[in-house]
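For this section, I looked closely at the sequence of one protein beside the tokens encoding its backbone, which the following lines show:
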Amino acid sequence: MVRTERYKYCIYDSGKYREQLTDLERDPGEMVNLAEDKEYHEVLQRHRTLLRDWVKSTGDIIGS
């Protein structure tokens, strides 16, 4: 999971919806998953990169 000022991005190792992106400003209850919304593609990509970079920098083998 990675959180920026506005968004929270989670990835799971199983399940139908392995990624979750929520807009914490508009949806503080985290009820709407934006990961499959095309309007949020760039936000999703940015958060994927942030999480991947964090995994690499910390040597987190579970998240890789």
